[in-house]
Amino acid sequence: MKIAVSELIVRFMERLGIGHVFGMPGAHILPVYDRLYGSQIKSVLVKHEQGAAFMACGYARAGNRIAACITTAGPGATNLVTGIANAFVEKLPLLVVTGETSTYIFGKGGLQESSGEGGAIDQSTLFGGITRYHRIVERTDYLAQVLKQAAKILLSDNPGPVLLSFPYNVQKEMVDASLLDGIRFAPDAQPVCNRFAATADMAAMVLAAQHPVIVAGHGCFLAGAHDLLQALSTEEQIPVATTLKAKGLVDEDSPLALGCLGITSDGKAYRHIVEHADLLIFLGAGFNERTSYLWDARLLGGKRVIQVDIDGEQLEKAFAADLAIHGDIRAVLKDLLLHIDDRRRAAAATPIARAEAALPPPHFAAISCFLDRLVARFPEGTQIFDDNIILAQTYLKASARHRYFPNTGISALGHAIPAALGARCAVAAPTVAILGDGGFQMCCMELMTAVNYRIPLNVVMINNGTLGLIRKNQFQLYHERYIDCDFVNPDYALLARSFGIAHWRVETSDDVDRVFADADLAGGINLIEIVWDKNVFPAYKSDR
């Protein structure tokens, strides 16, 4: 049976399990859009292509599945760059489909041409450094191999963005529908290893340590190792610090929880590690600039180090380990617990005293109160996408009952709203986007995407009339020489009214109570504006 390439593309996405595709049509991609009409895939029209890429990122992160975005040639594709770069750093399985001018006009100056011929934009070069695989499909005779390679990467345990660009005339060519039958649409089976030779050494090191500390990262989430991490921590009374991306992996109200390790955190984890730890156990955790306090030597100095990661490239990337284990974290922890059971300590460990939670400074009372109420109101499954990670890192008491998604990757402002919309398409759970007013103005029109498709969303916007991080740094490092950080905000109540969504202005804890008493936070679209003094800064200090 012969079908058009445009239909084959849609069937390919369906076979990959893609449920939504985010994008914006243009003339060069309309054949594919036409085949989406009546497809089981739901297309979502965005306001800007960058929003499409960020929505796909949120969809992939929350749904733990392949996401897709689609645009036309030229500016449609180039507007995706930031979002694709974010997916590349996050290793998200993102399929990007773009249109292209017809092959017979390559090099002749076709409108929005991206072939790289005759002075046109070279799309392959542009995306080469931020995709795992990219092709302009100029012929159908190798289409099967292209789609096979794309599927292999998207379904692998080390995925990333795949970009396929289809010239207009190629989309209309006919191919055999059975072409898809030769493609594997399931992940390759991974060898199961239940015992690791190195875990006997790991158990010996853990049991010999007087003050071990676990540094748990996003790899623990990906491995589904929450229960085994909890068992190791509880049975051996080992305190746990998490990276920002792993916030909520352990209940932050637990007496063994040290909170986030990172330069923008409250410093509890840092102090405990520097002052007490004699062994650090890194489980799927990177040691990047934020986590390491710019690679502060005091964190690792005088300590033995164990590192476990399924990604071999991460092992000893930023530090030398006394023991490095390349393997699935869940399997390693399961084996470790067996070894520890065989070598159980004769005496029980002394529980760590629980630190009393400090009251937030009055300047932070409203946001702290809001985050406390949020956790209490939605005890299960809340999705929180956060551009303004500094406040949540300190005041959001996350646990595995919530899904906290910090703006990691390339830390792009304007990420939270579209990413949260994508996540809400993947998972029907209360969803919150937290961001500053600077980031809000980069992406606020995507609120109309939420309105158009009736996607429930709560946007928590910190209104301080400035780019907070820049103003903080200019205050601390540049002698209060403020330049290009302050701006005038619109009337957000009027803006929300024009969008047809609810607006809530929060200045005090009483205002927070009013929001949680009266707002439809589960099924509505809300803009919650929290007013903050632009001259109040978080306590941490950066050196740049």
Topology readout:
Layout lengths: L1 E3 H11 L4 E4 L6 H7 L5 E4 L3 H15 L3 E5 L3 H4 L2 H10 L3 E7 L22 H6 L4 E4 L6 H12 L7 E6 H5 L1 E3 L20 H12 L3 E5 L1 H6 L2 H11 L3 E3 L14 E4 L7 H9 L2 E5 L13 H4 L3 E6 L13 E4 L2 H14 L22 H13 L5 E4 L2 H7 L7 E4 L9 H11 L4 E6 H7 L3 H7 L3 E7 L4 H10 L14 H8 L2 E5 L2 H10 L6 E7 L13
Parallel strand pairs: 2-3, 2-4, 4-5, 5-7, 6-7, 9-10, 9-12, 10-11, 12-13, 13-14, 15-16, 15-17, 17-18, 18-20, 19-20
Antiparallel strand pairs: 1-8
Helix pairs in contact: 1-2, 3-5, 3-17, 9-14, 11-14, 15-22
**What coarse outline follows from CA principal-axis ratios?**
globular
* Helix-residue proportion: 25-40%
Mean pLDDT: 91
The name CATH uses for the topology of the largest domain is: Rossmann fold
Number of helices: 22
The CATH homologous superfamily of the largest domain is named Thiamin diphosphate (ThDP)-binding fold, Pyr/PP domains
List the strand order in the largest sheet. 3-2-4-5-7-6
The biggest beta sheet reads:
6 strands, parallel
Strand content: 15-25%
Q: Give me the count of strands.
A: 20
The first-to-last residue Cα distance is 61 Å
CATH C-level name of the largest domain: Alpha Beta
Q: What number of structural domains do the residues give?
A: 3
Structural class: alpha/beta
